[in-house]
Amino acid sequence: MGRVGTDVAKEAADVILTDDNFATIVTSVEEGRRIYDNILKAIQFLLSSNIGEIVVLFFAIMLAPVFAKWFNISDVSAITPLLAIHILWVNLVTDSLPALALAVDPAEKNIMNRKPRNNSKGIFSGGMIYRVIYQGILIGTITLLAFIIGLSSSEGLPEAERLDIAQTMAFTVLALSELVHVFNVRNNKESIFKTGIFNNSKLLLAIGVSATLVLVILFVPALRDIFSIAKLPKENIIETVLLVLSPLVIVEILKLFKINTLKDEE
Known about the structure:
Layout: H1 7-12, H2 23-62, H3 64-70, H4 84-94, H5 96-101, H6 128-153, H7 159-181, H8 192-195, H9 201-219, H10 221-226, H11 237-256
Helix pairs in contact: 2-6, 4-7, 6-7, 6-11, 7-9, 7-11
């Protein structure tokens, strides 16, 4: 006890209760578990998003000669789905605000029903690596698919304009799909529709601000020039929206069949 305990007892103790209330121990354990969970959420979100960027760039470079042949593009070196400024924007602006907002995510309902965590296991034990990798591949795949759709749907246009449209689709899908993906990491077992979408106002605000900044780039002509963004054709909007929402739909299906936590018990 912090108030009535002797100095000798406090020096020998592992835990000192400053308010002399044993219920504080339960509250502290719950808060500690919530903080640890939120750290894992932020790590999973950021790493899976970054792996997605690596995947799309790697395969775009490897398949550039194939794309050049398919879509009759003479300059193979110009076939890149993302420019450096696009990657910097996604990493520094789009991802950072939601990752910070995950720190104040509320505790899961069953957080105190869990067994104590094994201190010998690190944060990348169990299913963490599995989820980071497959979700990163998922984001990278849909971004690359957006780039391919952009190239294929703009045939007949000048080569440079076709590449700009394809890059615009890739950038839009990558940036907005990562904002959608943040809902996947909030709970790896339960559906987001069960745990609640609106119970973290700061996260919703962060997503709203990040999405607004992306849309400003897409619709303001001066910013489009700076970011080498083309005006997205109307016929590609539905495809873009479907690709943006696909990470949430796919991960929700995997949660339903418990595939999202496949490696947790290992």
